[in-house]
């Protein structure tokens, strides 16, 4: 199957990521079959779709006429078998539990046509852990969307040992049809690219706080007001090519031995979890959170991501 042959999409799991992925495909003109375990979950997903569409309109990523057509393209069902009975491409977006995902993939294999590509929006597991649950390992692929999926352009496409070239090409191609920017990993890697780098930064940020070098608030300010801005338009290899690797090599020799490299879970985070300071979901993490704070934070991120995306598109078109 080629990317241009794909028109019907199954999305399994209608939560935080699933509803946004369904929205993306519907806005791109695809017929979407959204599945969750309860009708209540599906109703909530459709509410979230409408809210997310309003955000996209507000930040200029969708116009009202295109958004108006989205609800009619999303078909909901609490039956997984019905949701994938005649689809070309599936995105699994259920809870990050390996056994659950394997069970879902076995059901997808039984219920969907032989032509159908089965992708997993996992940030933790690899294709080789999911493909054995099916009789089509050549059509199993990881496709890791980033949150919020309707605002973030990156999708990491990860081939497994048995994933075919045709599956990789069709998967990347259908994402390009959505205006996404798929990056294909040529072999499996725990954490893929983005999470390996994101959690390396998190480990060092936690270490800086644990050592008493700076507060969490100051760490966030440093990232937002310095290299975080630059990384939105230039990656690390571009930035340090500009600086010169002779200079960077000297800094590496000095700094790498001092950077945190412990494989252990930080005591700072374990303490937060024990105290129930889980972040937004509990009303307190490193910051206090009210409902108004959360809404304002999400709106700020949405506007900023939309502006970055606009500038990035203009840059691409100008090349």
Commentary on this structure:
With 319 residues, the protein is an alpha/beta fold. It has three domains: 3-185, Rossmann fold, CATH 3.40.50; 193-263, N-(1-d-carboxylethyl)-l-norvaline Dehydrogenase, domain 2, CATH 1.10.1040.10; 276-314. The chain is 51% helix and 12% strand. The chain is built from 15 helices and eight strands. The chain has helices spanning 16-27, 39-58, 64-68, 70-73, 80-83, 98-111, 127-130, 165-177, 194-210, 216-225, 227-231, 236-243, 245-255, 267-274, 291-318, and strands at residues 8-12, 31-35, 74-77, 89-92, 117-120, 140-145, 154-158, 181-185. It has an eight-stranded mixed beta sheet, with helices on both faces. Helix 1 crosses helix 2. The radius of gyration is 21 Å and the shape is globular. The relative contact order is 0.10.
